[in-house]
């Protein structure tokens, strides 16, 4: 895994959202973007993380920040997650993990003694010019939204 760092230019990408519409990073030029990678919709940690971001949407809107959640989930799984948790931001499907690879968040993981490839839970705060300002890699899922807010002060 060769994870992007603060100061790097964010890779351009286009992925399908929960409505199966194409969404590109370029669509949000002139805005700050929180790109957060999560392993799987509707799992406990991912749900807590998404709920936290949902609950601070007004704060993020006031700071001109767009949230894009990216996982390897199929497009058809995303609307269920949005509906179940009343999510108010865009989720994107990266089934072939090409975008995760580009950001350097796809790699070897260990869980209960097993090793497998998957998405590492990292977030990138990208400025209005497409440059990564912050990489969030050490946080608890229930505190992720507060870490994001603290960086936007």
Automatic annotation (TrEMBL):
UniProt-listed GO biological process terms: cell redox homeostasis; cellular response to oxidative stress
GO cellular component terms listed in the entry, alphabetical order: cytoplasm
Domain Thioredoxin: 4-153
Pfam families for this protein: AhpC-TSA
EC number: 1.11.1.24
Family matches, as SUPFAM superfamilies: Thioredoxin-like (SSF52833)
Molecular function per GO: thioredoxin peroxidase activity
Source superkingdom: Bacteria
Broad class of enzyme this protein falls into: oxidoreductase
Keywords, in A-Z order: Antioxidant, Disulfide bond, Oxidoreductase, Peroxidase, Redox-active center
Keyword Oxidoreductase attached: yes
Function text: Thiol-specific peroxidase that catalyzes the reduction of hydrogen peroxide and organic hydroperoxides to water and alcohols, respectively. Plays a role in cell protection against oxidative stress by detoxifying peroxides and as sensor of hydrogen peroxide-mediated signaling events.
Family the UniProt entry places it in: Belongs to the peroxiredoxin family. BCP/PrxQ subfamily.
Subunit structure, interactors included: Monomer.
Protein name: thioredoxin-dependent peroxiredoxin
Organism per entry: Brumicola pallidula DSM 14239 = ACAM 615
